Amino acid sequence: MAAPRSPSNDARATAGQRVHGPSAPATVTARRGGIPPSTPPRRPTSPEPASHGAADWRTATSTGPASEHRGAGRRPDPPPVAVIDDGLVADYVHRIGELVDARLTQARRAGMTTRAAERGALVEETITAVLVAARQQAAADGRPALAPTVEDVIRRRARAARAELGPLGPVLTATHRWSDVEVNGAVNMICTERASGTRLEAASPFASDEEVWEWAAGQAALAGRRFDEANPSVRFRLPNGVRVHAVGRVTSLTHLDCRLFTPALDTLMGLAGTGMCGPDVVALLAATAALRVPFGLVISGGTGAGKTTLLRAWANATPTDRALERVVVVEDEAELFLDRTRWRNLVEFETREANVDGRGEYAMERYLTADLRRQTPGRVLLGELRPDGGVLPLLLAAGQGIAHGVAATIHAPSAVDVVARLRTYAAIGSRTVPEAVVLETIAATVDLVIHVAQLPAGRVVTSIREIGEHRAGTVTSAELWRWHPRAGRTVRTELDLSETLTAKLATVTDPDQFRARRPAAATGGSW
Fold first, then answer.
1. Which contiguous run of DSSP H or E holds residue 286?
2. I want to staple 181 with a disulfide (CB 3.0 to 4.6 A). Which of 258, 404, 458, 478 is the partner?
3. Which helix (H) or strand (E) holds 449?
4. What is the DSSP string of 202-243?
């Protein structure tokens, strides 16, 4: 690693232009909604006229020499602001990192344990020492020192680089505000507001695409995954639960897709408070979560609609006196994060990809077929049903009574499409089963399908459909709750619950509270 450039290069960091780059202060006017990485993204300001190119907005607010035609009553120009040389800043940040790593290595060899607070103090001490040395060297050489603004940027980026989550730390820890964070190299960053689903644009917190790649590679390594030339795509989970997908080298930029987890939204009442569902739907879900008889639940919806969030809340609605019941969570990527202090007999399975030698893979189908039944589960929660061979083993396990409760999520545009998706996914796998058997198994194991969607008002339950019988090559169903735009929530339809579902609910509550709401003269729907 080369040491920081000679202070002679610092002349470029003196008066002339406004500060640019991904860590520029919020005074920068950017069509990309530029913000400092130490603050959460804000709604971008109005873009400049379309005639301005990419370079135009960078210099549109620059201040230069005073105009010769300035009027007598005109205000003087503001003082010049330093321009940032990203390469110079990166050199200083890297040098600071090297010194910090050297001190930490020395401490480990001496058998000393460095706590987080001590590491933070070490970073601050090193930053100060490097900047003071730079000032002294500039004075000795008779050259301009680093501008204060440049020093501030170095401090900010050095702190971010040494943080647990690096430059993305501020946004990836703001789980109350953001649901998704997408980074497109050093170009920009798109953050999705959790409450409204609105996407906001901000400057990328990384100075170069190489920094994005190195960040992903480092975080993936901590999670036991590899991200390199031989493996240009990787999925992993950060220590705070954020799920990350990274891809690079095979794309023009290195892209990060981060899904943030919100522990606060882990109860049905909490979701009702956000407007996801009404009290009648909460009562229905709570009753089904308390069932001790065989019951199958599928939560459908699009990406980011809240399927996993609702599944977690439904699981947490299980009565606390069943804390010792064996609960098995099966996921391709861990995201449910049930609380082990509550679930004392919890099994969490996460699929394992093959290593660089093509070995070590452990697929969901293998676990569901070979291991699940031997763990005597009382309830099985499957994070997401996918066309990976796991659907049929799960349906068969539920049909054989291996678990009295099975719940899963699936990507589908509507509740009506779920049966077709299950039928298609069940055909993919190592075993071939006649379609009639698959449909009959679906009808026998799935009781309710709950559909969630992202609407302008937020994430809401838009439909609840009961799965009926297998008749003449099809599976019947009835919509019990339907989205009512004027009411702004799902409302009870005129269709009755089946006798089977009514009998199951009667084991834990009064099913009359879920009766169809219809005029007295109406006859209702039939199955």
1. helix 279-289
2. 258
3. strand 448-455
4. E--S-SSHHHHHHHHHHHHHHTT---BTTB-EEEEE-TTS-E
Rounded to whole angstroms, how far apart are CA atoms 487 and 354?
50
Task: Quote the tokens at residue 315.
Answer: 């699981």
**Residues in Cβ contact with 526 at an 8 Å cutoff, skipping those fewer than 6 apart:** none
Token reading at 190: 């798109």
DSSP-based three-state secondary structure for 52 = coil
Q: Which residues face 234 on adjacent strands?
A: 246
Catalogue the E-assigned strands of 10-165: none
In 3-state terms, what secondary structure has residue 448? strand
For residue range 294-305, list pLDDT tens digits in order. Answer: 999 999 999 878
- pLDDT tens-place string over residues 31-71: 333 333 333 333 333 333 333 333 332 223 333 333 444 44
- Name the 3-class secondary structure at 108: helix
Question: Are residues 40 and 170 in contact, defined by beta-carbon separation less than 8 angstroms?
Answer: yes
pLDDT in tens, 396-405: 777 777 778 8
Count, in order, helices (H) and strands (E) of the chain: 14, 15
Long-range contacts of 418-424 (CB under 8 A, 24+ apart): 418/298, 418/300, 418/446, 418/449, 418/465, 419/446, 419/467, 419/475, 419/477, 421/300, 421/385, 422/298, 422/385, 422/391, 422/395, 422/446, 424/387
Structure tokens at 79: 């003082």
CB-based burial label for 84 (10 Å; 0-12, 13-18, 19+): buried
Q: Which residues pair with 362 in a beta bridge?
A: 352
Name 111's Cβ contacts closer than 8 Å, sequence gap at least 6: none
Which among 502, 487, 484, 497 has a CA at the least distance from the CA of 526? Answer: 497
Q: Which of 239, 298, 260 is nearest to 447 (CA)?
A: 298
DSSP category for residue 433 = -
What are 298-350's pLDDT values in tens digits?
999 998 788 999 999 999 999 989 889 999 999 887 778 888 888 999 999 98
Do residues 131 and 104 lie in contact, with contact meaning Cβ atoms separated by under 8 Å?
no
Cβ–Cβ < 8 Å for 183, 189: yes
Give the bridge partners for 225, in sequence order: none
Q: β-pairing, 243-247 with 233-237?
A: antiparallel
Q: Do 194 and 178 touch, CB atoms closer than 8 A? A: yes
CA 433 and chain centroid, separation: 36
pLDDT at 433: 80
pLDDT digits (tens, 9 = 90+) for 126-174: 999 999 999 999 999 999 999 988 898 898 888 777 667 888 988 988 8
The DSSP secondary-structure symbol of 33 reads -
Q: What is the three-class DSSP state of 424?
A: helix
Residue 456 clears pLDDT 90, i.e. is over it: no
